[in-house]
Specification:
By secondary structure, the protein is α/β, with parallel strands linked by helices. Helices cover 38% and strands 20% of the residues.
Length: 282
Amino acid sequence: MRIMTSFLLLFGSPLLAAEPKVSRDIAYCDTKHERQTLDVYSLKDGKSRPVMVWIHGGGWQAGDKTEVDQKPQAFVDKGFVFVSINYRLLKDTVTIRQMGEDVAKAIRWVHDHAKDYGGDPNTMFIMGHSAGAQLAALVGTDDRYLKAEKLTLSIIKGCVPVDGDTYDVPLQIATVEERRATIYKKKFGDGATQKELSPVTHVAKGKNIPPFLILHVAEHPEVKGQSERLAKALQEVGVSAKVYPAEGKTHTTINSELGKPDDKPSMAVFEFLKDAQQPMKK
């Protein structure tokens, strides 16, 4: 009965809308760079709650961890600890690979401190929009990022990239017009680096790659193609991967409306998160 009650609190009727406790601007590594910080949203009580790590978008050159709209309230209402992270940007003269390293360092911090906020360090999810989708998928497939932090992909129970267009960077560069291809090349580097920063490159059996739910704007051919490309690669090695085409959304609203009670992509996300935790139930 206690287990069923806990399950309903997490994934049945939402918890009563209590204001999340917010801990802001926490440094997740010792370099003291202003971008290497995160915010934690949690309830004042409870323990062993699943943890969602959110990675903002912005073309790897903009965006901020505070741009979360109603997501923290929605996830906390569902029984999660919600963590929104910043990472260094291209304007900070770092590479996209170093951004992935920042994400892994943030996950390391969350793993070490989750219990302080009522979270379960071994039941973590990663989710991101646009550039954040690429970073979430990269860290969720290339296990070298977490291994560098002495962690394994087994702590990540699910990955939800939202409307990314660079899961296969060389394919995207080959698809778009020359002007945009030049921009991608400037951001991602030469052909070898483009491949290395493509999540599809790292999909393989035996790596504990978590299940994926890949959201994209239904009417946009590029993100549709990239989402289906990643899902197929995952499915071919036996990793559960679903693609959710969000009808009537734009690149902006698929993100800004996540967490709204009547938002269909949000319903799909929470159903996915419920299913991803089913093996954990006893």
